[in-house]
Amino acid sequence: MGAHATAAAAAVLLVATCVAAVAAAAAAALLQHEPGRISGDAVGVLDDDPVGKLKVFVYEMPRKYNRMLLDKDSRCLHHMFAAEIFMHQFLLSSAVRTLDPEEADWFYTPAYTTCDLTPQGFPLPFRAPRIMRSAIRYVATTWPFWNRTDGADHFFLTPHDFGACFHYQEERAMERGILPLLRRATLVQTFGQRNHVCLQDGSITVPPYADPRKMQAHLISPGTPRSIFVYFRGLFYDMGNDPEGGYYARGARASVWENFKDNPLFDISTEHPSTYYEDMQRAIFCLCPLGWAPWSPRLVEAVVFGCIPVIIADDIVLPFADAIPWEDISVFVAERDVPRLDSILTSIPLPDILRRQRLLARDSVKQALLFHQPARPGDAFHQVLNGLARKLPHGEGVFLQPGEKALDWDAGLQSDLKPW
Prior knowledge:
Blueprint: H1 3-31, E1 56-58, H2 67-72, H3 83-93, E2 106-108, H4 128-142, H5 145-149, E3 154-157, H6 170-176, E4 186-189, E5 204-205, H7 212-216, E6 228-233, H8 252-260, E7 266-269, H9 276-281, E8 283-289, H10 298-304, E9 308-312, H11 326-329, E10 331-332, H12 341-346, H13 350-360, H14 363-367, H15 380-389
Parallel strand pairs: 1-2, 2-3, 3-4, 4-5, 6-7, 6-8, 8-9, 9-10
Helix pairs in contact: 1-13
GO molecular function: glycosyltransferase activity
Organism: Zea mays
Protein name: Secondary cell wall-related glycosyltransferase family 47
């Protein structure tokens, strides 16, 4: 780096440090006078308590659908798809669980479709639909409840990149479509993108799993100045799966790198340092661009660490959008506008930055994105239950007439119909 570039970088960091220090002081003062409930789009539902509003029956499944998969490869406890495992564990001891299926509002089938992993630790996309079809067949032939509705009063965790389309590459996911047997069920999934074949009406979009205890262990003093203006660590190109470039992240990540790799306002790299979480707490803005899918754990991490998420993912459907005031805590940048990121972010007035930081500091916002063990009031588990409760009572057409069928068991790709 030349002398002029070094001086420019130092000046930028000095200015950012001063601004952050002033911002922290102003935010602390404002917090003392802030009312108890967030004002915004959340309409108070962050504080809802689902207990007493619904009852859930948890199917007792053979161990091959869950426990044996976990015992075979415990890495699935720690990856971003782990919500399906922890949701099962939570429900087993939740106050909403009922042991009487006749009084249940919802039925849950614990099948760990993201726990069958490649040697590199990625879910096997061609196995997941077979696991799910096998689990549904077991439920339908063991209990009478599936057949009353063809699954319309059942919910499933499908935390794959593209949900119940069960693939990490969008073209392949769209080719497969949502597993036909799940098309009457409610899907609880990390994937959410408007007008997409892999997003089913009535789905509940949840955050990816990010380990709360791991993040807690990396907390630094809240008074630490935010001396980094824009922060990002991750891939800009996925040459292994996109050797010609341009398809991965629809080119948005490549555009970030090409436009801002030498910009001193941007602390961006493919390296993932041991201080990653600490660095996020020193940053004002954290980039949350799409990857293969529009979401990633960075969104959760940014919120938890009070770093304003810069969401670059056109048409994204965000987790618990009826409870979390995303418009008030984030910055949205269209994928086509990535080359203007620097001017967009530097033009945001300081009062707007302070307001976002003030809302991000709220424990209720952070809690809603975390799957705590044990569960805590208002956390992601409870937000899922609140989403299910808001879908009650079940509408007309949920219960079928005797002998009536709504789903075709033989529909779907031939490869998905193979036994598991």
